[in-house]
């Protein structure tokens, strides 16, 4: 028998799905199949929006509509993807969500995969909780992927459990709003649970799943994330996983309800603009144009460390205790492609500030 975990938003949700599978079921030979988008940040994939099967070589068919991404698969340039490397480093099977035919297409993929696998359990996993958004929240930034998987799961004739891990860690919904929607506690992640994905988080750019793993290891405080420097509280609630009634989530999520009959991604985007006031793919399109105009800044300790000291002093005055390397890269006016080099330089020079996978802001100079 097989387990199926649907990574609601792709990206870091797929990594968290691997951690959840190990935590709940152990790390034996019967690993879950993880169904996920190939939708990465622009520093990984400079092409806006999600990738489909035509954007890869080396995929393997599971069903007529569902493809596996093995370690040998490669995205076709200029596209990029973290999925082949995840497949190489983790023991799970990664299957690709293709959103190009809207909710109808994702529903068909789910139905085919369920018929093929006959899974003993199906979980829809969202890190942060934006699957529970109404659509009008001013802090909402990326509702489309989660709404699309929620809409598809709501139309499948199979029992699917919706799980919210690390509620509030993506900074998209107010914590008080989220707490009122959560059902029973399913699990609280520990340092042992985070160990199977520790090597992945050394390179994977997900901020929410990175904070989820850090809080599982005991990190507490306030973490500054994203290009805007959003403060995220890291509390005892952060490493928890709660069940939520899927039908209640679907009735709450206006975008998910509206897109259930969509047959193209363009339709989904149009409804996102209408209901939420934006499409995050538009944001990616605009940012991709801006990034093309940026030239890399020279990365050396002599110029970097004074700039880091200024950033840390300002962050400390805001009550910030940690940050992500993605945010540090942008705060120091570096190109996104320099994130890994920055990370290595800082860890080598100040290893005591590395609170894996976050960077700790010292309390004093």
Outline the fold blueprint.
Blueprint: E1 3-7, H1 12-25, E2 33-37, E3 56-57, E4 60-61, E5 67-68, E6 74-75, H2 83-89, E7 93-97, H3 102-117, E8 121-127, H4 144-153, E9 161-165, H5 175-179, E10 185-188, H6 191-194, H7 207-216, E11 221-225, E12 230-234, E13 240-244, H8 246-252, H9 254-258, H10 265-276, H11 280-292, H12 301-317, E14 322-323, H13 325-331, H14 339-349, E15 354-355, E16 358-360
Parallel strand pairs: 1-2, 1-8, 2-7, 8-9, 11-14
Antiparallel strand pairs: 3-6, 4-5, 5-7, 9-13, 10-13, 11-12, 14-16, 15-16
Helix pairs in contact: 1-7, 3-4, 13-14
Brief synopsis:
The protein has 365 residues and is of the alpha/beta class. Helices cover 38% and strands 17% of the residues. The protein has a nine-stranded mixed sheet, sandwiched between helices. It has a five-stranded mixed sheet with strand order 12-11-14-16-15.
Structural description of this entry:
The protein has 365 residues and is α/β, with parallel strands linked by helices. The strands form three sheets. Strands 4-5-7-2-1-8-9-13-10 form a nine-stranded mixed beta sheet, with helices on both faces. It has helices spanning 12-25, 83-89, 102-117, 144-153, 175-179, 191-194, 207-216, 246-252, 254-258, 265-276, 280-292, 301-317, 325-331, 339-349, and strands at residues 3-7, 33-37, 56-57, 60-61, 67-68, 74-75, 93-97, 121-127, 161-165, 185-188, 221-225, 230-234, 240-244, 322-323, 354-355, 358-360. It contains 14 helices and 16 strands.
């Amino acid at each position: 028998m097989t387990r199926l975990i649907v990574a609601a938003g792709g990206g870091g949700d797929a990594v968290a799905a691997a951690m959840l599978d190990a935590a709940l079921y152990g790390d034996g030979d019967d690993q879950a199949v993880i169904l996920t988008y190939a939708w990465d940040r622009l520093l990984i994939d400079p092409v806006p929006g999600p990738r489909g099967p035509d954007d890869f070589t080396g995929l393997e068919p599971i069903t007529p509509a569902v493809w596996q991404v093995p370690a040998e698969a490669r995205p076709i340039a200029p596209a990029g993807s973290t999925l082949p490397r995840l497949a190489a480093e983790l023991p799970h099977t990664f299957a690709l969500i293709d959103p190009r035919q809207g909710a109808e297409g994702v529903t068909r993929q789910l139905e085919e995969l369920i018929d093929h696998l006959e899974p003993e359990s199906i979980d829809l996993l969202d890190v942060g909780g934006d699957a529970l958004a109404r659509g009008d929240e001013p802090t909402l930034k990326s509702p489309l992927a989660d709404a699309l998987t929620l809409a598809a799961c709501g139309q499948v004739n199979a029992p699917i459990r919706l799980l919210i891990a690390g509620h509030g860690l993506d900074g998209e919904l107010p914590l008080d709003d989220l707490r009122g929607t959560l059902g029973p506690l399913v699990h609280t992640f520990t340092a042992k649970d985070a160990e199977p994905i520790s090597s992945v988080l050394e390179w994977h750019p997900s901020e929410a799943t990175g904070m989820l793993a850090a809080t599982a290891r005991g990190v507490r405080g306030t973490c500054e994330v994203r290009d805007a420097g959003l403060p995220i509280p890291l509390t005892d609630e952060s490493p928890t996983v709660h069940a939520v009634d899927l039908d209640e989530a679907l009735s709450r999520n206006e975008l998910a309800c509206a897109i259930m009959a969509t047959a193209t991604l363009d339709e989904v985007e149009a409804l996102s603009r209408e209901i939420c006031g934006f499409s995050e793919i538009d944001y990616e399109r605009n940012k991709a144009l801006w990034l093309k105009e940026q030239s890399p800044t020279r990365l050396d300790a002599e110029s970097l460390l004074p700039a880091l000291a200024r950033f840390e002093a300002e962050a400390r005055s805001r009550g910030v205790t940690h940050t992500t390397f993605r945010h540090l890269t942008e705060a120091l006016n570096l190109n996104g492609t320099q994130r890994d080099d920055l990370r290595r330089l800082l860890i080598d020079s100040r290893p005591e500030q590395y609170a894996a996978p976050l960077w700790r802001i010292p309390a004093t100079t």
